[in-house]
Structures are given as C-alpha cells and as structure tokens.
Amino acid sequence: MDRWFWCDSSLSSGEAVAASAKSIRLYDGDKKTGYEDGHLTLTNQRLLWRHESQSSSLGLPLSLVVLIEDEAGGFTSSPKLVLHLASPPPGHPSGPIASSHASYVRLSFKHGGCSSFQQALQKALEARAWETLSMPQPANSVKASGSKKIHTGILGIERDIQKKQEAASQNISRAFEDLKNLMGLAKDMVSLSRSISNKIKEHSVSADDTTQFRSYLLSLGIDDPVTREKYGSATQYHHHLAREVARALEEPVQEAGGVMLLSEVYCRINRARGLQLLSPEDVVQACNLMRTLDLPLSLHTFESGVQVVQITGLDQDKVVKDTAQVLACHEGDGMSAGDLARECGVPLLLARERLLQAERCAQAVRDESSEGLRFYPNLFFSRS
Amino acid sequence: MRRRAGVGAIQRQKIQQDKFKEKGSEIQENQLEQMTLQMEKFREHLEDFAAKHKNEIKKNPQFRKQFQEMCASIGVDPLASGKGFWCEMLGVGDFYYELGVQVVELCVATSHRNGGVLSLDEVLLRLNHRRRPDNQISSDDIVRAVKKLRVLGSGMEVVATGSSQFIYSIPGELSMDHTALLQHAESVVHLTVASAASALGWSQERVSRALDHLLRVGVAWRDDQDRPPSFWFPAFFQQCATAAE
C-alpha cells in the first residue's frame, strides 16, 4: 500500500486510458482501507484511483506490478484483483501510507467489471509502455522486467490451472442445478404412479392391462408393493433375460458339476456382457422365471437362504449319494466344508450345502467342536 | 324385502360392478395416457442431463452420492434394474454392477484367509489400486453396490462394527453376540477367553460359544501354543491391507 502515491489526475504525454471501473475499494494486503467507492482508471503506465470528492488521485506505476491474480467473489464478498508489487525504488514519491508490510494490494470490484479490467491490465503490463519512455532507474526496470518474465510464465500456468478449476466448479454447480430439476420431474412421476397404483388396487385389473404400467415402474425404478404382490415384477424383459442366462450358462454350470452359486452366475453373465450390465435383482427375477419357462437351468434355494442355479432335474438324491461316498473315503478324520470343497472342486458355500443336505437325508452326521464343523458318514445306519 | 335376494338383485349388482369397472378403467386409461406423455418428457430431460453430466457421474464420487440420495428421497431406485432409464441413459448401472462383481470376486478370492469378513477399507484400497487416479471410488459407492448384492443369497452385506465397516460374505447368521465380539476384537486384534469376558462383561462360557462359532466359519483363528490359547482375527490384520496378491 505504500507504493501508491498522490498524483495529479491529468495524463502525461504518451499516456492513454485503457480501461476504467467504478466502486473500487483498495485493500492493503488483506486489510480494508478507507479508500472505497472510488473510480479506478487504467492507463498504459499506471493505475489511478480517485474518489469523486477529491481532485487528486492515488497512482500506482504499472512497472511495480509483478503478478496479477484474481479472486472470485462469493455471497458476501465481491470479486477482487490481487496485485503483487515489487518494492518501491528509492525516490519513489510519497503516498498516504508510509510503509506497509504487505507487498500486495487488492482491488475490490463491487459492481463487477473485474474480468475485463483484468484483461486490460494484463495487456498493459505486456505492452510495458513505460519502458519506451526514458525513465530513471533503468537498472531497476531491467531487474523488474527480468523477474516479471519468469512470473509471467508461471503466471500463465497458474492462470490456466485456476481457469480449469473455475470451469470445473461452474460445471458442478450447473450439474447440481440440472440434477435438482430432473429430480423434481421424477418426483411428479412417482406421485402419478402412486395414484395409478391405488386405482389398480381398488378395481381389479387383469395382468395384461398392467403390463405397460409395470414397464414404466421398471424404467423409473419405482418399487410398488401393490402391483408387485398382485402381478409380480417380472416383465417381458425378464422373460427374455431368463432365456439369455440359460443359454449362456448351461455349459459352465454343467462343467461346474451341475450346480452354480447365484452370485457366481451374476458375475459370469455380467463379465460376458461387458456393457449394459444386469442388476442383481434382474438376475434373480430372470432365474425365478426359469422353471416356469421350462429352461434347462433352474433356481434352487437352500434352507439357509443360499441360492443356486442348477441343471433342471438334477437328481438331488444322486448328489447326496455322491457326497456320502466321498465321506466314506474319509471315515477316519471326517470332512469339513473346506475339505469337501477342495476335494470336489466346488465353492465353499456349495460344499457346505451338500454336507448339510446329506445330513438331512441321514447320510452324514456332524461333529461340532472348537476344531470346526466336521461331517462323518452315518455309521449308525450303515453299521447297525 | 331383503336387498340381496333373488336373481334380479344379483344381476343388478353385477351391472353396477361392471359400470364401476368401466369407469375405473376409464379413469385409469386417462391417467395412463398422462403417464405415457410424462414418461416421454422425462426421458427427453434425462437424455439431456446425461449428455451434459454423464461424465460427472462416472468421475465424481460426491456427485454420485448426491444423485443416489436424491433418488432415494423421492422413492426411486436407479439401480433396481439394468433396463431402467437411469441405467440405460446415465450408465449408473454399469458403474455399480461392475463394482458388485469386483467385490464378489474379491470376497471369494480372500475368504480362505479371512473366513468371509473383509474390512471396507481393505476393499476400497484394493479396488482403487486397480483404477486410474481420476476414476477412484468411495466407500459410499462400495456400500451401495454391496447392498444390491444382498438379493443374490450369498449373505453379502455391510455390517458396522464399532468405528469401521465390514463386508460379510457368510450366509447364515452372525448374531448380536458374534458381532459384539468382532467389534471388541477389532480394537484388540487378538484376545483370550478371559480377556474378552472381562472387557465385554460376559461370562466366559458366553465368550467361548461365540468364539466357537467364529472359529467354525473361519473368521477367528486359534493359537494353541499360547497358554491360555489366544484368538486372532485375520480380517483385522493390518498387513492384509497392504499385501499385494
């Protein structure tokens, strides 16, 4: 702030006005000064600040400006320009403040015009009109220009980064605005669908008449318990999916021993698709339909809640017999689910289910201890 | 005269019912027409939105979270079906379903080591490791993806124990006791029956029972060389998080 000095408002020869702005306040570093609501004029050699009640202006030679930054405004603050200044040369005329510890000043643009002024200022700095005039302290100017060149380079890079950040944040705010509007629309759809669903509840309507409505519910992702209970949530789409899954996975399931965990089905079908993946619910719906569609694969749910897709008509008794046979080979130590999994090459969950199923059919007995859960062949039956 | 007697009365009633049905289906038809029109309009808006901001959804976890929360607040599940508008036009589905696949595969690959319990942080670390720096996921993303996987019946769910969250892939129930014991184990990493009993204020038998179950499912390991035997929980091993596999 000590670089500003009192001067005449008239322009010297060779000086021309480049830009001006109103309602400017000066900041000494980060502190507000009393110099507010003034008229700022940019010439090709200096910045002039004048309050209309005064005749003289505060001047700042552009040769002292080393770096310009801009600060975007917010709700409570106006946009500002930050001017980093070099130290004043000896013989610099005196100004309102003898010394300040901040080597930068800020200009606050209460009524806007910040960016256009910044551009004009930048141009004036690049033009460096004061160097063409014979000015004292050439050494200082050279030093200032030398350091300025470096800063201009960095300045350019910093500007780019700042611009990108600004653009990104502007984009985000626009995105959030658009999102809000979109959600408003969606909300209307939800209430409309609710009233339609209520009508359907009151008057019995056939399944065919509701197909279009149900497909709308699916498109929007609305879960309507009423229509779900009455008509199920399967649509034509799921019928189509059921066939696709059965076709794609019949062989892999066969290779896996005729049984595959539903979570693995989900992974495999999605990996195969690559794009336009299926939701877990889609997969469950599709597999639920398999039995009614008479497909080679069908869904089976164990008592524990584990779901598998297996070859239709998989003989459960055969599986139990096979399990019992494997157990018989391990009469001495018994087998844990992990052992069976390793031996038969099936996933752990599946091995566990096979053992539990064998137990239910009295082909295996369990031994629960702190060693874990192990199964043994049922010798009570076979040997009694 | 009894109102409900006689064939005539029955017939009259039926005619009335049919009239109501007609009226009802008329009203429905109008509303359905209205909905069809609105769906078209909505579709256009969504396409517009997607054209401008689809990338934001892919790259910005904050935006994704906001999007999901707004959908939930109006009663819409954008991840319900891959056939939904949201998935088809915004591609939200592909993002979360693919994440689901990755989580399932990770659980299967590591369950021999941790018995089917993985810390959310470890999953986050491993999955982000594979992704580009500008394509990172957040823990909110993982939680949402796993929530969807529940319906597959392999017992996948997110459980909060104490300060952190874990992903369980053990079907069959972990009771409150088991969860409480795991919560305690998280803070001490290893324990004995006695230490757990005094920390939790339970009887030693109660601790033993819970520990037995956790041993059985493979979440806890027992070190018999310690006197008294100590129990360790691989899911909480720090090293697991940094082990490259």
TrEMBL record, chain B:
<keyword id="KW-0813">Transport</keyword>
<dbReference type="Pfam" id="PF04157">
    <property type="entry name" value="EAP30"/>
</dbReference>
<protein>
    <recommendedName>
        <fullName>Vacuolar-sorting protein SNF8</fullName>
    </recommendedName>
</protein>
<dbReference type="InterPro" id="IPR016689">
    <property type="entry name" value="ESCRT-2_cplx_Snf8"/>
</dbReference>
<dbReference type="GO" id="GO:0000814">
    <property type="term" value="C:ESCRT II complex"/>
</dbReference>
<feature type="coiled-coil region">
    <location>
        <begin position="25"/>
        <end position="52"/>
    </location>
</feature>
<comment type="subunit">
    <text>Component of the endosomal sorting complex required for transport II (ESCRT-II).</text>
</comment>
<dbReference type="GO" id="GO:0043328">
    <property type="term" value="P:protein transport to vacuole involved in ubiquitin-dependent protein catabolic process via the multivesicular body sorting pathway"/>
</dbReference>
<keyword id="KW-0175">Coiled coil</keyword>
<keyword id="KW-0653">Protein transport</keyword>
<comment type="function">
    <text>Component of the endosomal sorting complex required for transport II (ESCRT-II), which is required for multivesicular body (MVB) formation and sorting of endosomal cargo proteins into MVBs.</text>
</comment>
<dbReference type="InterPro" id="IPR036390">
    <property type="entry name" value="WH_DNA-bd_sf"/>
</dbReference>
<dbReference type="InterPro" id="IPR040608">
    <property type="entry name" value="Snf8/Vps36"/>
</dbReference>
<comment type="similarity">
    <text>Belongs to the SNF8 family.</text>
</comment>
<dbReference type="InterPro" id="IPR036388">
    <property type="entry name" value="WH-like_DNA-bd_sf"/>
</dbReference>
